[in-house]
Amino acid sequence: MQTEKLSEIPHSIRDEYIGLLQDIAISEGVAPDITEELLKAKQWTEVSTFSTGKPTVVKVSVDKPFPIVLDSQDEGRVFELAGQSDRNKTTSLIYMATLLGINWDETRPFLDRDDKVYTTATQRVCRALSQGQNAQLQIKSKNYELSIVITNGCATVSLSDEFSRFLPDFNSRPISLTSSEDWEEYRKLMKTVCDVQFVGKSRDFIGQVSIEECKDLALFCKIVLDRAGLMRRYLQNLPRGRTAHELNAEISNIKIRLAEVKKEIDGFSHQIGGYQRLIQDAQELIATYRELEDTHNTEIREVLRRLKLEGTVRNQDKKRQDFERRVQDLTQELERVQQKLRQDEPRYTSLKVGLEGLRAKISNELKNLSILSDLCSQLLRETTNKDYGSLITFCTYALVNDETLTLLDSILEVTRPFSKALIIPFDSASEPGMKLNDLEKKLSAARSMTVDIQKLNPELAQAYQAIQTVQISTAYELRRLETEVTTSQTIATNKSRLLEENREELGVINQTIKSLLRDEDFKSLKVRIDELRQALPDEYKALLEKVERLSNGIGYNEPWQLNLSDIQAVIGHWHDRIRELRDSMATQEKKKSQLEDRLFDIQQSSSGPESRQREALDKLQTILGHIVEYLEEYSLRREGKRLYDPTELAQITGRFSAHVEKLDRTINRVITRRCPVMYKNRASGLVRLPVKDYDFLKEKLNVPDLQDGEWAGGGGDSAMTVYGLASRSSGSPIGTILLVDEFNDAETFKRIVCDDLADLEQLAFAIFVKQDPDLKDLSFEVLK
To answer: CA-to-CA distance for 780 and 767, rounded, in angstroms?
Structure first.
């Protein structure tokens, strides 16, 4: 059929949502070629253009009244911002999120119960930046560099690729931030750069992620609804009847689509067969393993014991190698930091000692000073507030010495007999010249100042010498040196602590290996196992080989470290996957039937079905409008912005009842994809439990492996919130930036969550805030 050629939807759309609307459109009678044109969108990708899992360096600085200076120095994917309470940790995250263009109104329902974060962000931070506060954020990796500088109520945004080429619209582009309209434009611009996720203290995983996905799907439905209107008007204006060429073209398109659908069905069938074979092998493995464990043969039991011991020692040895690498890396990192300290600390100390010595001298001599008394009083007041700018400038007076005093005395002695009447004829349009008496007064004042300066030596000369040696001439340079020194000291302390912890852990592992092997070494253990296996009867040899073959076949490379309950859980997951594949195959079978019916109708008709297509598009628009209303009502209810009777939601869903189930199922499937595991802390350690599915309407999740008495809380739900929000991505150049304000209730899960976050390629970086009463200064360092 002849159709309107629509432009590609410029947003990345999830395959699940394209599939949902494709199914709805075809089921309502929209032709496949028109459906394809309506849903023509930028290919979905979960991987950002630039970051793709690359480590990042993060630097933030903000002027008073919230002085913030953070510099990760080292590259990382996950960072920790630690310190005592009331040290601007949360404020630092708020500034970063604001600079990155977060929409605080959309985030507000999940920040905190007392609205403190929202109020700080909108009433203090945004207002301060609009009124001239200076702030800077720099994010740099091997693939890109993002720079945001705000000065005098104006933001300058730069984004360049790995070849230092600026992206269009991001070559130091200035943007005013003086009005709320300006901020809206700024947020729209930054939304094309990255996805910012701020995890507040009021966490609601299913609520937050489902709202995000409902808003994304609602936006997609609105876009397709408008495109359907364009297509409908186009068909309305087409001349009646179609040519044989047009009919043949549509038949050809349908046949091509039929071939694609049949290929997808064959692919689903092949995957189902593969999972069925895996289940069969896993069940056979369990049976064989139990047969070996239940035997009373002492020789085979000894072999099994040694095989399990070998696997345990091998795993411990892998951990040992990992910790040895960590110790080596930390040692090198500590040496780099200490080397920087050895360079910067003596410079800073000598300068600070010189300036403080001069300050003490001024304080002691203040009552003895004459002409410099007021200036020195001002210097003392400024330095009390840690402002050394004027004092550094004052140190240039050290160039005034004894020879200056001698020279002034000589000049005054020579001029004194003539000073009352003599006029010096300086060239001037209004005056005949300067009286020598006036010049004498200035020279006398200069002599008094010189005497005052001499009273401040040798401390003044020593301070000036320190400034010259360190090569610092402004208060800003002094503050920067001080910040570098204190930051390096903090990093060195933390690295030393981590190094000691890893060395202790390494010692424990070495002791564990030693206790496992006792008087034997690993090589002799393997030799003894081989000898014992060779001595076994053939039937037991065959059983051992079968376990190893089946284990490798289902993806377990450590057959003698198997936990049979884990294999049972995996079998359950494979059964779930088969059910999902069968559902998908059934959907494709339905599409195949619809395409075949459509092909039959066209082949039986000599005239074009434009009128039927207009009717189908009209129905599609109506259904999409109801879906948008349904999704928006849900979002408003979850955000607490609207209360209504459940019957209202039922009335809305009744208007598109044929598609409600598949709509809800699609959103639940996407949420499962966003966070496929639940985190639990068991006696055996931290575990990841596969989530079978979610029900976003009932705010429930199905985790088959939960034990009796276990529940989704205890910090595990907060860990799921963090991972679920980190997994969001629109395919933006930088990807997702995750800012987590205090992970206290889920601190137990931090390491396992950080491991999982580091595997997310769409994640640019994450920052966790941690309260640590033992830290005097803020610590900003790499966790992963």
So the answer is: 9
